[in-house]
Amino acid sequence: MTDYKAILNKPEYNFINTNEHLGKHVILLGLAGSYAYGTNIEGSDIDIRGITLNQKSDLIGLTQFEQYVDDNTDTVIYAFNKMVNLLLSCNPNTIELLGLSQDNYLYLNDIGQMLLDNKRLFLSKRAIQSFGGYADAQLRRLQNALARDTFPQSEKEQHIFNSVKNAMYSFNLSYKSFESGSLEIFIDKAVNPELETEIFINAKLNHYPLRYYASMWNTMSNVVKDYEKIGKRNKKKDDLHLNKHAMHLIRLFIMALDILESGEINTYREKEHDLLMDIRFGKFQNEHGTFSDSFYDMMREYERRLHYAAKHTDLPDDPDFKRVQELVMTINEKVIRDEI
Questions:
Q1: Do 17 and 23 form a contact (C-beta atoms < 8 A)?
Q2: Which of 47, 194, 208, 234 would bridge with 33, disulfide CB 3.0–4.6 Å?
Q3: Could you state, in order of their start, the residue ranges of all structural domains in the chain?
Q4: Which residue, 291, 312, 257, is CA-closest to 139?
Q5: How far, in Å, CA of 277 to CA of 180, rounded?
Q6: Cα dist. 252→9, 34, 44, 134 in Å?
Q7: How would DSSP label each residue in 205-244?
Q8: Average pLDDT for consecutive 10-residue bins of the chain (340 residues)?
Q9: Could you tell me the pTM of the whole model?
Q10: Phi then psi for 65, rounded to 5 degrees?
């Protein structure tokens, strides 16, 4: 089993110990993203999320601090008070930090454990909207990508071709005949046996300033680039993104069901691992890039279960603000008393 805690010993994570907002104020650090869900593959980025206590000056002084972001290591560490507000709304990207597999917590002190011990305080019917909203966003991304992907190729080519023709028209209008000569670009039967048509140029220039020619060349180069887009797409890359959107859609449904049906936050999806990886690796995708009926049947079944769970959940409409506030005051009082 990989010892992820050793990651923090790498030099690029020194900021956790040296930054004034972090250091002894950090109460929890954990894996996020695919490693947290158990859906990581070779080459997956290691993302870290965490919580740090607000400083005394943030609580009773004039300073403000909400989060620390280190783009180099894909690390985001939230200030405690901001995190509490996100947890109260059952924000999927933050509530999942309270339900990691124990091995995926890279650092956890007594105050961090106190927060985990009280995680159910943050669960409410607000999860219906928050997880549902995130799932809808994933579904829209999936549908939009599929719409782009399955749009008739002839129509996509015509759209690009029209933009090329417009550029050529503007170019020829300016350069077809001028004082130093003439330039004309046009589409004709290809010389290259691998192509049907390609762009040609008729050129005659005399004593023409090079700096002007460089500008014309840039215009012509852009026309060629647009023309070469016709009929091409990075199918492998696009399919990877499509399948990832589809996987996260199902994962969000499953996590939401856990919260609504049993009041549990289970970020690491051990039971559904094989299903999620099958989706990620394209086993529900057809050869044309669309998704199989079985995928949509599964999605509709999860939607049905989510609607049922939303109506019958035992969770309260809203979190118990009084108990949450007591917890927050207890923890923040430790900061004020220099007991961290």
A1: yes
A2: 47
A3: 5-123+319-337, 124-315
A4: 291
A5: 63
A6: 32, 13, 19, 8
A7: ESS--HHHHHHHHHHHHHHHHHHHTTT---HHHHHHHHHH
A8: 85 96 98 96 93 96 95 96 95 95 97 98 93 77 60 47 55 66 80 77 83 75 64 60 89 95 96 97 84 88 91 95 97 95
A9: 0.72
A10: -150, 130
Q: List helix spans (H) across the chain.
A: 15-18, 34-37, 56-60, 80-88, 92-95, 110-117, 126-150, 153-175, 210-228, 235-262, 273-280, 293-312, 321-336
Report which residue type is found at 272: E
Residue 105 in contact with residue 29, Cβ under 8 Å?
Answer: yes
Distances (CA, A) of 205 to 24, 183, 210, 217: 71, 8, 11, 13
Paired tokens of 25: 């104020």
Q: Are 138 and 248 in contact (CB under 8 A)?
A: yes
Q: How distant, in Å, are the alpha carbons of 31, 78, 85, 319 from that of 94? A: 12, 9, 10, 16
Tokens of 67: 């989060």
CATH of 5-123+319-337 given 3.40.50, 3.30.565, 3.40.630, 3.30.460? 3.30.460
